[in-house]
Amino acid sequence: MAIDFSTAPAGAAAPCAPLPGDPADPAAGPAPAPIGVPAELEALDRIARFTLDLGERAGLPPGRLYRLRLAADELATNIVMHGYRGAPGCILVDGGIEPGRVWIRFVDDAPAFDPRKGLRAPELDVPLADRKVGGLGVFLALTAVDSFDYALVAGRNVCTLAIARHDNG
């Protein structure tokens, strides 16, 4: 999906639907059409359905599909809860199916944040009650997929998750 970032200034609310005439890249394969959802917890189910549809179209084995959905759910929830923090906003989601991998991209106007910053492994040797709160979901999400990319483009967060279509070996 080509996203025209010049249509609104950084920090302005993005449209909650892909721009007209902006279909998924035909080279990406038979991916579902891009979606735009409001940055609300109630809308996260649409992202989950998009993720499941994409994975099923790609023929992802159940374990890989579970990992992709886990990562997508966590990333989308963090955008809503920690990015927009209850403010109105939008999350644009598109994805692609390539011969060796499946990818999902999230674009939002929340304050700039690279989820990899401050990423730390869970302190498994520390009692649960003594552990620092936060970060476990992002750790699980980013280690569930094969790659994660982040870019700040025209003031917007662009996060891409990718997972291999098949197990190696």
Distance between the ends: 32 Å
Order of helices and strands: EHHEEHEE
Task: Note poorly predicted spans.
Answer: 1-14, 19-28
Helix content: 25-40%
Structural class label = alpha+beta
Number of helices: 3
Strand order of the largest sheet: 1-2-3-5-4
Q: What profile does the largest beta sheet have? A: 5 strands, antiparallel
Provide mean pLDDT, rounded: 81
Number of strands: 5
Radius of gyration: 16 Å
Q: Tell me what portion of residues adopts beta-strand conformation.
A: 15-25%
Oligomer: single chain
The best one-word shape is globular
Q: In summary, what is this structure?
A:
This protein is of the alpha+beta class.
Task: Give an account of the 3D structure.
This protein has 169 residues and is α+β, with helices and mostly antiparallel strands. It has 3 helices and 5 strands, in the order E-H-H-E-E-H-E-E. It has helices at 44-58, 62-84, 136-144; strands at 35-38, 90-97, 101-108, 147-153, 156-164. A 5-stranded antiparallel sheet has the order 1-2-3-5-4, with helices on one face. A hairpin with a 3-residue loop joins strand 2 (90-97) and strand 3 (101-108). It is globular and about 45 Å long. Residues 1-14 and 19-28 have low confidence and may be disordered.
